[in-house]
């Protein structure tokens, strides 16, 4: 098997709202869109983010009405504090404050208008000693 690209596909109520959120605040661009569908990308993200409207008939029946839950859309960034300040200045509500974990992860979270959790992360692995 050779994987040529990757995507995460999330089922939400309002595709346009989630698409606009990632476009406005995270620099994604809409590559394709139709009624109930949007595919977003960034040159540096390594994957596309796809939003599908709940109830879309093209989805399998057992997936049609499921909302994207229990999922964190995480992006590793170079300047975590800078991104936190920028998002606050843009009026984005920080739903989990900046946290430092003992294993070296630092992260904070926001939610898009459909409740999708977006987490920005950096890593400062502890040094042995």
Throw out a few tags for this protein.
single chain, 4-stranded mixed β-sheet, 129 residues, alpha/beta
Level of helix content?
10-25%
What is the first-to-last residue Cα distance? 41 Å
According to DSSP, the number of beta strands is: 8
Derived from helix and strand composition plus strand pairing, the structural class reads: alpha/beta
Mean of pLDDT: 92
Shape: globular
Largest sheet: 4 strands, mixed
- Low-confidence segments, ≥5 residues, pLDDT <50? none
Gyration radius from CA atoms, angstroms = 16 Å
Strand fraction band?
Answer: 35-45%
Detailed description of the structure:
This protein has 129 residues and is an alpha/beta fold. The protein contains two helices and eight strands. The strands form two sheets. Strands 1-4-3-2 form a four-stranded mixed sheet, with helices on one face. A four-stranded mixed sheet has the order 5-8-7-6, covered by helices on one side. The relative contact order is 0.20. The mean pLDDT is 92.
In short:
With 129 residues, this protein is of the alpha/beta class. It is 17% helix and 38% strand. The chain starts with 6 loop residues before the first strand and ends in a 6-residue tail after the last strand.
């Amino acid at each position: 098997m050779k994987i040529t690209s990757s995507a995460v596909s999330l089922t939400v109520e309002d595709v346009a709202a989630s698409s606009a959120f990632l476009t406005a605040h995270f620099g994604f661009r809409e590559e394709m869109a139709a009624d109930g569908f949007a595919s977003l990308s960034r040159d540096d993200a390594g994957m596309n983010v796809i939003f599908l409207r709940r109830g879309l008939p093209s989805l399998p029946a057992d997936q049609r009405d499921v909302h994207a839950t229990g999922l964190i859309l995480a992006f590793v960034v170079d300047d975590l504090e800078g991104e936190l300040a920028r998002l606050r200045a843009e009026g984005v509500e920080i739903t989990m404050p900046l946290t430092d974990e003992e294993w070296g992860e630092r992260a904070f979270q926001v939610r898009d208008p459909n409740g999708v959790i977006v987490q920005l992360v950096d890593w400062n692995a502890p040094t042995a000693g």
